[in-house]
Design goal:
4 strands, globular
């Protein structure tokens, strides 16, 4: 498991290589399978991190309303966080 931000994380699989975006606390069922929701399967770590970013922003604004300037300001803050994450991923 690769923790990205808050409770968002990525799992990796081999054969074929997949990066699975999930959100949650890694809850396991009785058989040991992960029960957290899958948000998508990606062929690269960078694509998976971008998907986390996109979903993270969508979740940020799903409840309530805000002004455009406030939303854009928050998105800029989130983007700055993800730039740092991507620098670590691609370094």
């Amino acid at each position: 498991m690769i923790k990205i931000i808050d409770d968002w994380y990525i799992e990796s699989e081999s054969n074929p290589v997949n990066y699975i975006v999930r959100r949650g606390k890694q809850r396991l069922d009785k058989k040991g399978s992960n029960r957290d929701r899958v948000y998508g399967y990606y062929s690269s770590m960078a694509k998976a991190v971008k998907a986390v970013r996109d979903n993270f922003i969508a979740e940020e604004f799903k409840d309530g309303s805000t002004s455009l300037s406030t939303a854009l300001s928050r998105i800029s803050e989130i983007d700055a966080e993800f730039v740092k994450i991507m620098e670590r991923v691609t370094a």
